[in-house]
Model the fold of this input.
Amino acid sequence: MTEQELKALETACPLVSTLAAAEEAVWVNPERVPFAQANGGLPLTMADVDDAEARLARFAPFIMQCFPETKAAGGLIESSLTEVPRLRDRLNQRCGSAITGRLLLKQDSHLAIAGSVKARGGIYEVLKHTEDLALETGILTGTEDDYTKLASPQAREMFRRYTIQVGSTGNLGLSIGIMSAAVGYQVIVHMSADAKQWKKDLLRSHGVTVMEYESDYSEAVKQGRASSDANPMSYFVDDENSTALFLGYAVAAKRLVGQLKEKNIPVDAQHPLFVYIPCGVGGAPGGVTFGLKQLFGDHVHVFFVEPTQAPCMLLGMATGKQNQISVQDIGLTGLTHADGLAVGRASGFVGRVMMPLLSGAFTIQDAKLYDYMRDLLETEKIFIEPSACAAMEGVVKLTQAPETIGYLRDNGLTEHMENASHILWATGGSLVPEEIREEYIHTHLE
Ligand SMILES: *Cc1c(COP(=O)(O)O)cnc(C)c1O
Done:
């Protein structure tokens, strides 16, 4: 983008100046509309989410067989919803926020198999492809068949002839790689420069081929897609456009309904629900948001959080350019300690679906991620990775930034904040090795 083009963009959308300066930004989405109005125009429906949930249920016996740690949950990969009142008090005290109501942590950081939110979408897409292949080749006679057949030697021999490939900053590769290797596929994960060494090592220990690139996430995806297209026996998991990934994430919302009921947490006009989700390319937060809006409509308010150096979704949505613009176009590096969020160009598919649904977005400086990480660890004894800590910026800023204070007022929420519930979507962390945790705990950035 030329200097002149950037100037014109900043005039049309003043927020771009804040983003280009890598300053923390707060954005309230002016295109959001009442859910009833938005829903008719969306490319996916609740029936699609129900279908994904049913598919996961069909695979539960197989999952239990491959991953005995899922036995207690009946083969469902689900995380707990945990109330974190001491974290709320700490944030109010240390950050000057005024969080009222209940603060909860959705611990996707502790999801079985992949230790991140990617255990939802990534594993779902591998299973969906597996079901398609198994039905096609007659390993399964129908969706009523016994899915533990998929673990038989004959089935594994068949799956070995196929390859799965994916581009990743780390966690998606872990999820796709571990699940695909468990089914029996050949797997190639194309890792961007941001990917952590321990994630590559862990994948290789599962027999996964890891290709490393000096370039960013978009380039890793491009390489992966080209490599997969060249092999007729290969399937490419396309994080930028996949509806399967998106629907796998969306199932989280259905499960959350029961968890909120269990905790006697109502969600209605007098009891608003606020959800804060770290965003990279958009698939995970977008899918979860889509599901939440289907189930809670206008009573749920979802905000994304991105690093100041990689605000790709905010940039795409606020300018309306979606995936036609990258953070590098406005002079940012795309480099961040939040490896899971190190994405320069958002998914156009997700951005368009989010336009009428998303409440807004925040950006956060890397240094704060580590402070929030220590806040949670010290007050609640829960470790989550720095990328996941971005969520905390949302709840801290909500009642402090003029933009979101305006949002609360304009939507008649101010008087209900005592009854509000806030969910921090903790997107990853349980697989981080002990020595890396120690390193994070002692990281202090300017
Ligand atoms: C992948 C990831 C996200 C964001 O998901 P996207 O689909 O890339 O937007 C957030 N947090 C962590 C820890 C992740 O690994």
Notes: The pocket of pyridoxal-5'-phosphate is lined by residues 116-118, 171, 278-285, 340-341, 385, 387-388, 427-428 (CB under 6 Å). The chain has 18 helices and eleven strands.
